[in-house]
Specification:
Elements: E1 3-5, H1 16-20, E2 27-31, H2 34-38, H3 44-63, E3 67-71, H4 80-91, E4 95-99, H5 104-112, E5 116-120, H6 129-136, H7 144-155, E6 159-160, E7 163-164, H8 195-208, H9 224-237, H10 239-242, H11 262-267, H12 272-284, H13 290-314, H14 342-354, H15 359-373, H16 377-387, H17 393-404, H18 421-427, H19 448-459, H20 461-464, H21 471-479, H22 482-498
Parallel strand pairs: 1-2, 1-4, 2-3, 4-5
Antiparallel strand pairs: 6-7
Helix pairs in contact: 3-8, 7-13, 9-12, 12-13, 13-17, 14-15, 15-19, 16-17, 19-22
Bound molecules: flavin-adenine dinucleotide (FAD), ligand DLZ and iron/sulfur cluster.
């Protein structure tokens, strides 16, 4: 008899440890524990989703014939190792089978238990660690695009006889339309909480009610069956325009045509290939265009897999990198949304209400601001890890430390994702009602993104001026008259001082 550990983001009967186990002999251990619920102040919706999905999954395992030793948070277990030790005493075995956790912290914790833990690779991904290593080995630059093409070849997705569908690997240049006035897709499928979820909601309210984030209304899928319905709903209603408006932002429209499937995918309720195959089928049937389907599939078999590869390749110190030596503390408004910058306030309000923001809001609004303002990337990382329902370190850290904050010195991105207010204005409706003016570059009411953008480039001139992709920006800065440059730098410094 062995203990089969199933973590809160391993909720599938395809997980390696369950495939290895025997329902007639072994006992599944699942535990809601303080250490996992508190390593960052998670958004209440994220905790509720995790616990409710865990409880529903335990019920499904029992129905399938497994014995499940399930500890709820009120059982008072401190950590996953403690849950294993306590189960080990109850069941009289020291043998544990686990699937490798998605975070170095928990990998180390499992290694340190006095139990006999066999850790199996998590093979819910398209590329194994060995495959990613083989691809990365000896390359000067880890360009996602090249990795993505390998994944297209490997999976056969959108391939016609060895060639990419419609002759091109990437249709991104068609995917940059600003938001239209109206969004006819109503967003993700919503589910009414059942009695099991209601119980979790009460628990989360009592224990984590003071964390940043609104718990109710809670509408997430909490079972694989519901997540499958959410997938079908997106493929039909959202996917056709996913590409066109992928980068657009609209006040009051948190979801636009995004899938809002990342939390289900990361928790194990959905499988990456089943999502991509559903998207490809829509393309083959003619119900979604190539720019939408290719763009969507690239996010999953390209970016998502690539990020995981980088996290595990770079090792436990990745989350502490700070290549640009940014030291400023995270401003309080990240927890209150109380800022006159309307774009930032909208992205944070929506994060508070839904535990969700789409990619461009994360990258070009909150992330862009944090980078321009020189916020300590460790603080930025802790914030993102806490506030999004889909945030687990293996995927959050390379997006934040790497893509968004350039704190890894250029592993994920070849240049920092920074922009002035212009980009936000072009892609959103935020600027119209903002207390700042996006058209104003200096002086009274100047948009802080305009000031901070140039101040950032100036501050990091030594590092970036030689980057061919940034040469234009430096030329523009250098052509500005000196008085204007001085005014920008002074006003940017004053703004940061007042943060
Ligand atoms: P869609 O826009 O519908 O995209 C489809 C799917 O593609 C997503 O469900 C997701 O699984 C995948 N995907 C898209 N972009 C990425 C990416 N860059 N990396 C990995 N997968 C991607 N994603 C997370 O899953 N967890 C995180 O903690 C997370 N933190 C992020 C932090 C920052 C600063 C940035 C810039 C991005 C982050 N992302 C993260 C990536 C991306 O923003 C989210 O995956 C996406 O917004 C989830 O919403 P969606 O399901 O509607 O995605
Ligand atoms: C996110 C999360 C939370 C909030 N709580 C638990 C928990 O109580 N028990 C558990 O097994 N998993 C939880 N998780 C998910 C883990 O944090 C996740 O497995 C690790 O971070 C590795 O990705
Ligand atoms: Fe954001 Fe500047 Fe536009 Fe205001 S004016 S919404 S701060 S980009």
């Amino acid at each position: 008899m062995r203990l089969i550990l199933v973590l809160g983001d391993q909720l599938t009967d395809k997980i390696a440890a369950l495939r290895e186990g025997d329902p007639d002999e072994d006992v599944v251990v699942m535990a809601e524990v303080a250490a996992e619920a508190e390593y960052v102040p998670h958004h209440p919706k994220k905790i509720a989703f995790c616990f409710s999905a865990m409880r529903h999954f335990a019920q499904e395992l029992e129905a399938a014939g497994w014995t499940v030793d399930y500890a709820t948070l009120t059982d008072g277990l401190a950590s996953i190792p403690e849950a294993l030790l306590s189960a080990s005493e109850r069941h009289g075995t020291t043998e544990v089978v686990a699937t490798r956790p998605g975070e170095w912290r928990l990998i180390a914790a499992l290694e340190e238990t006095p139990l006999d833990v066999a850790v199996l690779e998590d093979d819910r991904f398209i590329a194994s660690h060995a495959e990613f290593e083989a691809w990365a080995e000896g390359r000067k630059e880890l360009r996602m695009e090249w990795f993505y093409r390998e994944m297209r070849r490997k999976t056969g997705l959108l391939m016609n006889g060895g060639k990419p569908a419609e002759g091109k690997w990437n249709f991104d240049h068609e995917n940059r339309k600003p938001a239209p006035g109206e969004v006819e897709f109503g967003g993700p499928m919503r589910f009414a909480p059942d009695a099991m979820t209601d119980e979790v909601l009460d628990l989360v309210e009592a224990r984590f009610g003071s964390n940043f984030g609104t718990l109710r209304p809670f509408w997430f899928a909490v079972t694989r069956g519901q997540a499958r319905r959410a997938l079908t709903h997106f493929i039909k209603g959202g996917l056709p325009k996913f590409g066109d408006y992928q980068d657009a932002m609209l006040s009051g429209e948190p979801f636009l045509w995004h899938s809002v499937l990342s939390m289900y995918l990361n928790a194990g309720l959905l499988d990456p290939m089943e999502i991509c195959e559903a998207a490809e089928a829509a393309y083959r049937e003619g119900s979604a265009p190539i720019n939408a389907v290719e763009g969507f599939i690239r996010q999953i078999i390209g970016w998502r897999e690539y990020m995981r590869g980088v996290y595990f390749r770079e090792g436990p110190d990745y989350v502490r990198r700070n290549a640009l030596n940014h030291r400023r503390a995270l401003p309080g408004f990240f927890w209150t949304a109380a800022t006159g910058m309307r774009c930032v306030a909208k992205a944070i309000e929506q994060t508070r209400d839904e535990a969700y923001a789409h990619h461009i809001q994360r990258l070009m609004v909150t992330g862009n601001f944090a980078l321009l303002a020189g916020i300590d990337p460790a603080d930025v990382h802790a914030w993102y890890l806490a506030v999004y329902a889909d945030a687990y370190e293996w995927v959050e850290a390379p997006n934040v430390i790497g893509m968004s904050q350039f704190a890894d010195g250029g592993i994920v991105g070849s240049k920092p994702y920074v922009s002035s207010g212009n980009y936000i204005d072009r892609m959103s409706d935020y600027c119209g009602d903002c207390s700042y003016s996006v058209k104003t570059k200096t002086g009274e009411g100047a948009c802080p993104f305009n000031l901070l953008y140039w101040a950032f480039l100036d501050r990091h001139r030594e590092r970036f001026a030689g980057n061919p992709r940034m040469a234009n920006m430096y030329r523009t800065w250098d052509r500005m008259d000196e008085a204007k440059r001085d005014a920008i730098l002074e006003e940017a410094a004053a703004f940061l001082e007042a943060l």
